Amino acid sequence: MSATIENLQVRRRRFLSPTYQTFYEEPVHFVRGEGVWLYDPDGNAYLDAYNNVVSVGHCHPHVVAALAKQAAILNTHTRYLHDLVVDYAERLLATVPSPIGRAIFTCTGSEANDVALRVAEYATGGTGVVVTRWAYHGGTMATTALSPSAGSPLGPHHRTVPAPDTFHDNGKAVADFPGNVSAAMQDMLDHGVKPSALLIDSAFSSDGIYIPDATAMRAAAQAAHRFGALVIADEVQPGLGRLGSGLWGFRHYGIEADIVTLGKPMGDGHPLGGLLLKPELVEGFGSIEGYFNTYGGNPVAAAVGLAVLDVVESEGLIDNSRDTGAYLRQGLAGFRGRHGIADVRGAGLYCGVEFAGDDMAATKAMTKKIVNGMRRHRVLISACGESDTVLKIRPPLSFTKAHADQLIDSLGQVLRETC
Ligand SMILES: Cc1ncc(COP(=O)(O)O)c(C=O)c1O
């Protein structure tokens, strides 16, 4: 380990809260990013196959220029009139079905989900929320209580259902998903809790990356509606073209969402989040003070968000997500049945590669070794799932087939070295 990295780690430990964790046994120090590449201080290039936040690529020149231009002109907030925030809302709302017709801007996905939960409580008069068993929906008090994967206890009015796991038990959990949602809502009622929302990340990212059959997803949403609950589509992971079929995960399945929450990929690394929702839900919401977010929807944020949408369109990134994602999965599928790899799944540029074994602890340790081995080969990926045995591959949407080849080649070498 270099002296610089050691020194940085010592200073981090001294000045930052221990809640900050680094990736990898040998942490990486980056000083520059461009497209799908990250560079360390010695100029070594790392292939970024992990960071969805930089959706259109690290430091995309169009996004950087839009940010710099607007930052040099004006940055205020939504208490003053400005055209860019309205332009951005209008452009986003044109991408969702017409019953959804209003936007609220925040800085993070957690805030977006937090406000969505408040709106759902306000609109339904209920407090009960259903999430999947290993979901992650954010770091505020309300969203942590709905993020079992974060390790906090679930709130008393919350219920979990198994994610629609497409792999184990021949996908039984997919068929069971709508019934499980109904049962959870009924259980709330039986305990005197009125249902308020079904909150789902339609890529089931923390649960292990599942892209289930659309029929089951639609039926689950309908079940929530039958109980008077709203459907909140958390697009922080599947949104902005990640699944390679339009901009949004909920539209991939044709789910009727009442509230769509946005985050990570919207700002290509800059703090942008928000909600798109049905107008009637927010009539009278926050009637005393409204909802104000100091930075959410400011002119610079709006300029960045618009620039990101420009790039997605002008570079054909949704099609690229679909085509390169399919190519990548086809290459990864070549490992299936070897080195303990039992399943390769996903949609667009969101891939999960699951390891299986009789001894879960050993399988988890092996998955960790593969992730660290890839890092040594200068390819960045991670792991997810309830047992941390699923490789999580989720590069910027500008990833090409040549990048996919490099990833597959490195993974082959690491698998041979490790297993
Ligand atoms: C599905 C999902 N929802 C919400 C969040 C929270 O977003 P943020 O970290 O921007 O608050 C995350 C973050 O990882 C997420 O994955």
Question: Main β-sheet, in a few words?
Answer: 7 strands, mixed
Extract low-pLDDT stretches.
none
Rg (C-alpha, Å): 21 Å
DSSP helical segment count: 13
Portion in helices: 25-40%
Strand arrangement across the biggest beta sheet: 4-10-9-8-7-5-6
**End-to-end distance:** 25 Å
User: Would you tell me the structural class of the helices and strands?
Assistant: alpha/beta
Mean pLDDT: 97
Bound molecules: pyridoxal-5'-phosphate
- Outline: globular
**Beta strands, count:** 15
DSSP strand content: 15-25%
Q: Order of helices and strands, N to C?
A: HEEEHHEHEHEHEHEHEEHHHEEHEEEH
Descriptive report:
- The structure is a single chain.
- The strands form 3 sheets. The protein has a 7-stranded mixed sheet with strand order 4-10-9-8-7-5-6, with helices on both faces. Strands 1-2-3-13 form a 4-stranded mixed sheet. It has a 4-stranded antiparallel sheet with strand order 11-12-15-14, with helices on one face.
- Helix content is 40%, strand content 16%.
- The chain is an alpha/beta fold and 419 residues long.
- The model has no long low-confidence stretch (mean pLDDT 97).
- Helix 6 (172-190) runs parallel beside helix 7 (214-226).
- The structure holds pyridoxal-5'-phosphate.
- Residues 108-110, 113, 136-139, 201, 205, 234, 236-237, 263-264, 273 line the site of pyridoxal-5'-phosphate (PLP).
Question: In summary, what is this structure?
Answer:
This protein is α/β, with parallel strands linked by helices and 419 residues long. The protein has helices at 3-15, 61-73, 83-93, 109-124, 141-144, 172-190, 214-226, 249-253, 279-282, 299-314, 317-333, 360-376, 401-418; strands at residues 32-34, 37-39, 45-48, 102-106, 128-132, 158-161, 195-201, 230-234, 259-262, 273-277, 341-347, 350-355, 379-380, 382-384, 390-393.
